Amino acid sequence: SAVTSSITLAVSKATPTVSAWPTASAIFAGQALSSSTLTGGTASVAGSFAWSVPTTAPAAGSQSEPVTFTPADAANYNTVAGNVTITVNPAAPIASLSSSSLTFAAQNTGSTSAAQTVTLTNSGTAALSITSIAASANFAQTNNCGASVAASGNCTISVTFAPTAGGPLTGTITITDNASGPPQTVSLTGTGSTVTAAAETGSLSISAAGNSATDTVQLSPLGGFLGMVNLTCSVTYTGTGSAADTPVCSLNPAQIQVTSGAAVTSTLTVTTTASSTSRLANPFSPFGGAALAALLFFVGVPRRRWQKWSLLALLLVMLAGTCVGCGGSSGSTGNTPTNPGTTAGSYNVVVTATSGSVTSSVSIPLAVQ
């Protein structure tokens, strides 16, 4: 007859075979093994490789450090220990930036934007010595980095945009330090908003004092500029010595609203003053003398007889008055200059457009004949 019984069989975990151990990426002295990446490696069963003591910070040089292979089927397979060679470079700084570029919104020329920030991090094991942090034209920076950034430390760079011209503008923040490789850079982009003033003609000419000249001033918006623009003008004598009665300029309109990308215009008018003279009556001319004599006679007449002679004296005075400025001999009248008028010569007319911090000017040469 058959006999049935049970026995206990102990089955031990199998030990996988590792045919190739992984390679390790280099680290710097002072960094832990966890900073190194293990790649590759081959075993007889599925599993993964990892540093046995990832917190170890080996000295500089070529070091052999323990690595453990852990099977995916940990219930049936044992872990396997081995060693991997790792290159540990001397301590050095490693610089990195939180952003490689910054973009600013449109900003009026003559004004400054709000700051945007970039973080400079030193993930190396030695201090990052900073030689300079510089911003190119139209941009500016401030920072709290000081002369160096400690290992595993960081600092902040604040960047602002202050355009000096209209249209798209680009720049760079350049950080020069002792990290390996080229300097760290941040690309900068912004748009300057402004309005430019230009004259329709290159120059103005007035044929003689007393005449005037006009020109058209065109205002062209750039970079999406919108707003009210105020116009002013001035005239300066550029000849030798000084000028009398400098020309006067005006603009119509003197205030223009820019509401789109289209150009707007204003009319510039420059006026000059003609020379002028006046004729004064000679009190000793026949009529002038008669009027003077009548007045003297009238003063000498007794008051009780004024009524009788007053009419005659009044007629003589009126007759003399009608001759003031009348033609006559050189002995009876004289020409007296009262205004020499605008001096002939060269002038410069400047038209300035202003809107808040935005300012643009155009110069127009003026010749008065």
Helix-strand layout with pairing:
Blueprint: E1 18-20, E2 23-24, E3 27-28, E4 38-39, E5 42-43, E6 47-51, E7 61-71, E8 80-89, E9 95-97, E10 101-103, E11 107-108, E12 116-122, E13 128-135, E14 139-143, E15 148-149, E16 154-161, E17 167-177, E18 184-199, E19 204-206, E20 212-222, E21 227-237, E22 248-252, E23 255-258, E24 264-271, E25 276-281, H1 286-300, H2 306-321, E26 333-339, E27 345-355, E28 358-368
Parallel strand pairs: 3-8, 10-18, 11-18, 19-28
Antiparallel strand pairs: 1-5, 2-4, 6-7, 7-8, 9-12, 12-16, 13-15, 13-17, 14-16, 17-18, 18-20, 20-24, 21-23, 21-27, 22-24, 25-26, 27-28
Helix pairs in contact: 1-2
Q: Any overview of this molecule?
A:
- The protein is built from two helices and 28 strands.
- The chain is mainly β and 369 residues long.
- Strands 10, 11, 13, 15, 17, 18, 20, 22 and 24 form a nine-stranded mixed beta sheet that branches. Strands 19-28-27-21-23 form a five-stranded mixed beta sheet, with no helix packed on it.
- α1 (286-300) packs antiparallel against α2.
- The radius of gyration is 48 Å and the shape is rod-shaped.
- The N and C termini lie far apart (146 Å).
